Amino acid sequence: MHESLILTRSLRAAGETTLGVERGARSGRFVRVRPGAYIPTVEWQRMSAELRHRVAMDALAATSRRPVVFAVESAAALLGIPLVGGWPTLPRVAVGLRPPRRSRVDVSMRWRPVPTGDVVSVSEMLATCPARTAIDLAAERDLASGVAAFDHVMRVHGQTRDAIRSRIDADRPFRGARKADAALALATGRAEGPFESLSLTRIHQLGFEAPEQQVEFVIDGIRYRCDFYWPRLRLIGEADGRSKYGDFPGEALWLEKQREDALRSVVDGLVRWGWADAWAGHPLALRLERAGLHADPRIASKYAFSS
């Protein structure tokens, strides 16, 4: 539980009054995360959206009378599955809680009970398992979110495409099944983070040919690995946005420059892009086109990134 979270139940158990935090909430000194759980406003204001979500989860788990099984984004937070896009304000619950009136708990009512085998314990909390969480994220959120989730559970949690496909097929019909199908078809399990998953998704949505991922080159006895590679054009793609080396201080700058020079010596081109380029779509398209790639307008026309 977050160290700054104050529980009225704990205050009463210690023989202390709760009037201070209750009055503090009315005056703005404390934020009531949920009934019976408060946090200093100054702490809350400094938190990221992800951390606020985690604090809301802590508050819910600490004040609920019944076991709570976290799901979707909340399960992702516990399992370390990355999100592409924003975090919801309220925790997400699959089963185990019937919220009272005026509860600040978001419960997705379309969900069916989660089988016992799909529930895992993480940091003394319950959550849907990695594969189930990834499927739910893919079904509810956009394509990039689903690809990032599937990439992560395949690479980190050892889930195979066939195993995930079997789970999706066993659950049919359910809302978002087609979205989950599309995300699983695109995910490779080779992306080393959500930025690479987002980039792979945008490359597809923009109508460019699919690259190989995590290709290694051995140059003068040194092994270098690149994010993306188009062998037809002998073109390397780097999803890091460091084309001007501004992120590298001192020695690290020199090493990265040496790495790029080595890679350029064995290929015909190297193109870099940043998160903002991939998120917006069009800036990434311009970079890829200038590097020699050509988009298929029939694919791009299906998405909002077509020009």
Describe the structure.
With 307 residues, the chain is an alpha/beta fold. Helices cover 44% and strands 18% of the residues. It has helices spanning 8-13, 19-27, 41-46, 49-63, 72-79, 130-140, 143-155, 161-171, 177-186, 194-205, 250-264, 275-280, 282-290, 297-300, and strands at 6-7, 30-34, 37-40, 69-70, 92-95, 106-107, 119-122, 125-128, 212-219, 222-230, 235-239, 269-273. Strands 6-5-4-8-7 form a five-stranded mixed sheet. Strands 9-10-11-12 form a four-stranded mixed sheet, with helices on both faces. A three-stranded antiparallel sheet has the order 1-3-2, sandwiched between helices. A hairpin with a 2-residue loop joins strand 7 and strand 8 (125-128). Helix 5 (72-79) packs across helix 6, helix 6 crosses helix 9 (177-186) and helix 7 crosses helix 9 (177-186). The radius of gyration is 23 Å and the shape is globular. The relative contact order is 0.08. The model is unreliable at 96-110 (pLDDT under 50).
Labels describing this entry:
single chain, 307 residues, alpha/beta, 5-stranded mixed sheet, 4-stranded mixed sheet
Largest sheet: 5 strands, mixed
Strand content: 15-25%
Low-pLDDT segments = 96-110
Helix/strand order, N-terminal first: EHHEEHHEHEEEEHHHHHEEEHEHHH
Question: How helical, in percent, are the residues?
Answer: 40-55%
Judged by helices, strands and strand pairing, the structural class is alpha/beta
The largest beta-sheet arranges its strands as 6-5-4-8-7
